[in-house]
């Protein structure tokens, strides 16, 4: 897949996400959900905050368990790993 394909998929994703609040605000008779602006903004705020809360609480708890480190012991930031050696003569 070329970079242009990824760029087009990213643009399509952004366009679809921009239309979601529009569909939520359209009256039910016209095929929307008929939500008020308060509900739409509240849902938007929750969808931004909830993943961060899960990351801070659940994910840190999961990563602190011993079995997690046993299974995924090689997961480290790239900057921590040793650089790849392309030639056996490199120091």
Q: What is this structure's SSE topology?
A:
Elements: H1 3-25, H2 37-63, H3 66-71
Tell me briefly what this model is.
By secondary structure, this protein is an all-alpha fold. 62% of the residues lie in helices and 0% in strands.
Q: Tell me the overall shape.
A: flat
Distance between the termini: 36 Å
Segments where pLDDT lies below 50 for 5+ residues? Answer: none
Tally of contiguous helical segments: 3
- SSE series: HHH
Structure characteristics:
91 residues; mainly alpha
Protein model, in words:
The chain is mainly alpha-helical and 91 residues long. The chain folds into 2 domains: 1-35; 36-75. It is built from 3 helices and no strands. It starts with a helix and ends in a 20-residue tail after the last helix. The mean pLDDT is 79.
């Amino acid at each position: 897949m070329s970079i242009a394909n990824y760029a087009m998929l990213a643009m399509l994703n952004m366009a679809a996400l921009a239309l979601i609040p529009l569909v939520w605000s359209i009256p039910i008779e016209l095929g929307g959900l008929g939500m008020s602006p308060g509900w739409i903004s509240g849902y938007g705020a929750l969808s931004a905050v909830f993943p961060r809360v899960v990351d801070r609480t659940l994910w840190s708890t999961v990563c602190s368990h011993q079995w997690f480190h046993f299974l995924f012991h090689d997961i480290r930031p790239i900057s921590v790993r040793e650089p790849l050696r392309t030639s056996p003569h490199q120091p």
